[in-house]
Design a protein that fits this description.
Role in flagellar biosynthesis. The chain is mainly alpha-helical and 283 residues long. It has one domain. It is 70% helix and 3% strand. The protein has a two-stranded antiparallel sheet with strand order 1-2. Strand 1 and strand 2 form a beta hairpin. It is elongated, with a radius of gyration of 26 Å.
Length: 283
Amino acid sequence: MITLTTAEMNTWIAALLWPLTRILGLIAAAPLFGNSAVPVTIKVGLGVLLALIVAPAVPALPATDPLSLAGLLILAQELLVGLAMGFSIRIVFAAVEMAGEIGSLTMGLGFATFFDPNTQGRSSAISQFLALVATMGFLAVNAHLVLLSALVESFNSLPVSARPLYGGGFKQLADWGSIIFSTGVQLSLPIVAALLITNVALGILTRAAPQLNLFGIGFPITLGVGLLVIAMSLPYLATPMQNLFLEGIERARLLPRTWSQRQDAIKTPTSPLTPQRPPGQHP
């Protein structure tokens, strides 16, 4: 007769539950995986499948009851790690979407907005188009597989532990968020530059021929020039987008390492009052 103790059952539950929480956190926050068009059952099923694959290779887990207060804190910490890794990739897509927003406003398409179910807000037509292009590029370079590889690697760089996380990783994530503005402006520069030249030309034309209706011809021209520039610049967006994806995945990979190094540094502190012995000298 096979008998199971409560400690054994808790160990088995924790061995699957804690890795599953980190995986589901990344799936919920990362683009493509966390898209609202994907059913929740598919997301949970993918997370359980990945957890079953990863769980046997996860380093030793803390001997804590998963239903105790300490176990729930570990659960919340694992969820936070997964969300942070997925959010670092979401920032890359936010930068692309901001480039579309800047291009739309410059072209005069600021009124052409739609409801975006992912952000639960309004998004311009150009922004959604560039987001779809970025999604296709994300799949084309297999960045989703590299992201899952970084997730599996995080269980070795930051094992499941009861030690709390410290602020170094969160500061890195906040600093990484600055690319939303810098990269968004850089990606939209071709559209902005072309339309700036177009508007200057229209201004000169209006001064030369005041009888022309600027509002009648200006909007079609700026719209046409903007769409033409987008069509011409699309082939050249592959390299910067690929670099963005790789940098975002590298940031997601560095977050667990930063937290792990910080935990190790605090675990073994060195006091400045401790006398330092020369090498080779024994106490």
